[in-house]
């Protein structure tokens, strides 16, 4: 869903008509809510456990205010994006639906609530702020047999275990220590309830997280070569599937500076963080930042103690931050399209 609004202020003769895109994700998670609140989800298996309903509220509030005032010169596109969680709605909107051809934007901005920052604190950091996320599936094929006669088998559990150990070196011994990457094995299935049987195969899976595109490409290539090499050396075979996920979310320098300056107007300079550490989580706003310069900010929601994090069944969005997010969106328009 995209809404377009034109400002009322005059554009000077010879000046290009400027435009800005503001994005809010609006999808829920496929999980049960367990908050017990009177306004909890009424739909089984659907829960706004990441605060996207709050992001939508912020952008709707900004749109309502700007529609009433129109105190800017140019065009603003309000981008309400579906399917951020797992399904790549941002990729579809950018690559398949060509939104930036149909709704031209000079720059694009987004926001996400961030429980790890104090309430009302805004983080605007240039460069990579969220990682790419690729997944891999491994199928190790050996030769099964009786557990009492392992010498007559090619034990896929043993072989796969050696591959797991070897993969640890992709980060610890093949990645620059000042770079950041994660290779995590999260699935290892082999065998049955018959404990006297060595199985014929094993299935493994996991995730690769990086900030730098070159590191991402290298790790995907090295992972495949590492697994195939280790497995072949032990007489088994390997099938390796790499499932490409979201690219890293990389903020542009000039647009991040503008975002931080506007944030300072809203919450004060002391409440703007320009060097918050990036996270290995992923975000499909990255596709929009690949196409257009812009910035993705985090707005602190003030998690304390044992308060539930996002994606927790008991998570509850902090409504106190909604006016801050809406105000930031408004001032980004009024400043960019002055």
Describe this structure in words.
The longest helix has 21 residues, at 213-233. The chain has helices at residues 52-69, 89-96, 99-102, 156-167, 169-172, 213-233, 253-267, 286-291, 322-336; strands at residues 2-6, 19-25, 75-81, 107-114, 122-123, 127-130, 132-141, 145-146, 181-190, 197-198, 201-210, 237-243, 249-251, 272-273, 294-300. Strands 1-3-2-4-15-5-14 form a seven-stranded mixed sheet, with helices on both faces. A four-stranded antiparallel sheet has the order 9-11-7-12. The chain has a two-stranded antiparallel sheet with strand order 6-13. With 338 residues, the chain is α/β, with parallel strands linked by helices.
Question: What characteristics describe this protein?
Answer:
338 residues; alpha/beta; 9 helices; 15 strands
Any chance you could write out the topology, listing elements then pairs?
Elements: E1 2-6, E2 19-25, H1 52-69, E3 75-81, H2 89-96, H3 99-102, E4 107-114, E5 122-123, E6 127-130, E7 132-141, E8 145-146, H4 156-167, H5 169-172, E9 181-190, E10 197-198, E11 201-210, H6 213-233, E12 237-243, E13 249-251, H7 253-267, E14 272-273, H8 286-291, E15 294-300, H9 322-336
Order of helices and strands: EEHEHHEEEEEHHEEEHEEHEHEH
Major beta sheet, strand line-up: 1-3-2-4-15-5-14
Number of helices: 9
Strand content: 25-35%
Helix content: 25-40%
Please state the average pLDDT score.
97
* Rg of Cα set: 24 Å
- Sheet/helix structural class: alpha/beta
Counting DSSP E segments of at least 2 residues, the number of strands comes to 15
What is the global morphology? elongated
Distance from first to last alpha carbon: 26 Å
The major sheet is characterized as:
7 strands, mixed
Q: Give the uncertain stretches in residue-range form.
A: none
